[in-house]
From TrEMBL:
<dbReference type="InterPro" id="IPR036188">
    <property type="entry name" value="FAD/NAD-bd_sf"/>
</dbReference>
<dbReference type="Pfam" id="PF01593">
    <property type="entry name" value="Amino_oxidase"/>
</dbReference>
<feature type="domain" description="Amine oxidase">
    <location>
        <begin position="10"/>
        <end position="431"/>
    </location>
</feature>
<dbReference type="GO" id="GO:0016491">
    <property type="term" value="F:oxidoreductase activity"/>
</dbReference>
<dbReference type="InterPro" id="IPR050464">
    <property type="entry name" value="Zeta_carotene_desat/Oxidored"/>
</dbReference>
<protein>
    <submittedName>
        <fullName>Oxygen-dependent protoporphyrinogen oxidase</fullName>
    </submittedName>
</protein>
<dbReference type="InterPro" id="IPR002937">
    <property type="entry name" value="Amino_oxidase"/>
</dbReference>
Length: 457
């Protein structure tokens, strides 16, 4: 075949979609029984359960919305959530996290910290041009961790804003992950009140893409070897040859699969560490709300307040279609410090640990908790450390070879937007290498900046 794509997450499917439209023969190999990767969704008796990613933003997701338009998804299929984020402090929920109203309300910050929030916002506004979505290694704060940066401000900004956001949405340890990536994400995604979800589950774009592609699920690839003019894949007892192979899997998995990567690739793969993720879904006999009247769809539980959970997602508030009428659905997200001890534990132990922490925040939970499912992600999200940022420029300047990569870790942007951008960029790199084989395609393509491709050649 022309191209073999390993991994049917959003990055792999985006790349395969672009290459197929260009006239190449493409097959996608996926070890799991379903597509979506870390944007997969599960269905059970009328509940739609997002096992990984939870939402997207109308701003800062340029490539994603281009893809949504191409797939023909309507506004009704990608609705606005319209509910706030809240943070728990001193026995109550404080709404307005990551919204403009936090400048007035403080969203759980002390009075002194509230002033420092205004100072941070003013600093971020002045320096917004010093952050680059596509080249985070060139951004301000690339050598600092989130915790380093937070020390400029009152400790509350770390404890009740930076840490709970980083810990819940990315599973990050703020002492390890780069401030450049987090601040840029806060700047680019806009107010939490504008965020959206996919009505029929976060796997909607993956399912739409896969329906038009040759995708082999339940077919893991065990090794990829680059050769002159192409590459070989070992899948089960079969050997598959392709002119190009795209490894669209987390960096640690790509490092395990690629038998002979060049040095500039191997060092970046090694630097792209991932944080694990662990979630428990709770199917409820009745919907619950966080006391206080604001009805947030996410309750952040900071590490200074809670050792087991990092957040509770009220999925029936995110979108009513996530649960049958009159029912509820929660997602319990484990605290990053708890995950290593629990990741390999039996489901019953994980469920017991996480659900036992819920009644403190949602009174009446035990009476309506009906059924639970555990979702493990050994490689949850790229950690985006300063070391990875330091090595990214050399990786992005590598020549195009028979084996290439796509994933949010390539962009060091831990979000589905990073996956879509990386998939489109990887497709462009493959097309530049196989150009004599490609027939012209005149319809609109996903946006890739010219300088991105030039720097990757």
């Amino acid at each position: 075949m022309d191209v073999a794509v390993v991994g049917a997450g959003l990055a792999g499917l985006t790349a395969a979609h672009e290459l197929r439209r260009a006239g190449l023969s493409v097959r996608v190999f996926e070890a799991a029984p379903q597509v979506g990767g870390r944007m997969a969704s599960a269905r059970h008796g009328g509940w739609t359960i997002d096992t990984g990613a939870e939402q997207i933003s109308p701003s800062g997701y340029r490539a994603t919305w281009e893809l949504i338009t191409r797939l023909g998804l309507t506004e009704d299929e990608v609705p606005r959530i319209g509910r706030p984020l809240a943070v728990w402090r001193d026995g109550q929920a404080h709404a307005g996290v990551a919204e403009a109203r936090a400048l007035l309300s403080g969203a759980g910050l002390s009075c002194r910290a509230h002033l420092d929030l205004i100072r941070f916002q003013a600093w971020a506004f002045r320096h917004r041009g010093d952050f680059d979505d596509d080249r985070p290694e060139r951004s301000l704060l690339a050598a600092e961790t989130v915790a380093d940066f937070a020390r400029r401000y009152h400790p509350d900004l770390h404890d009740y804003l930076f840490q709970p956001v980083a810990g819940s949405f990315f599973g990050w340890n703020t002492e390890r992950s780069a401030a450049a990536v987090m601040v840029n994400l806060l700047l680019s995604v806009g107010s939490a009140g504008t965020w959206c979800t996919y009505r029929d589950g976060m796997d909607t774009p993956a399912r739409r893409l896969a329906a038009e592609l040759d995708v082999a699920t339940g077919q893991p690839v065990h090794q990829v070897i680059a050769e002159d003019g192409g590459a070989r894949l070992q899948t089960g007892e079969d050997v598959v040859t392709a002119r190009s192979v795209l490894l669209c899997v987390p960096a640690p998995v790509a490092a395990e699969l690629h038998a002979n990567p060049p040095a500039e690739e191997a060092e970046f793969l090694a630097a792209c560490t991932f944080t694990p993720a662990l979630k428990v879904s709770c199917l409820l006999d009745a919907p619950l709300s966080v006391p206080g009247g604001d009805r947030p769809y996410v309750l952040l539980t900071p590490a200074v307040e809670e050792q087991v959970l990092s957040a509770i997602v009220l999925d029936h508030e995110k979108h009513p279609g996530r649960a049958p009428a009159g029912k509820g659905l929660l997602t319990l997200m484990a605290n990053a410090a708890t995950i290593p001890d629990l990741l390999s534990a039996p489901d019953a132990e994980i469920i017991d640990r996480l659900t036992s922490a819920v009644p403190r925040y949602l009174p009446g939970f035990d009476a309506v908790n009906r059924l639970n499912f555990v979702h493990r992600h050994r490689f949850g999200l790229p950690e985006a450390t300063p070391a990875a940022l330091h090595r990214r420029a050399r990786f992005m300047a590598r020549p195009v070879g028979p084996v290439d990569y796509a994933g949010d870790w390539v962009m060091l942007r831990p979000a589905s937007e990073g996956a879509v951008r990386a998939g489109a960029l990887a497709a462009s790199r493959v097309l530049s290498r196989l150009r004599p084989l490609v027939r012209p395609v005149f319809s609109k393509r996903l946006p890739i900046r010219t300088e991105d491709l030039e720097n990757s050649r």
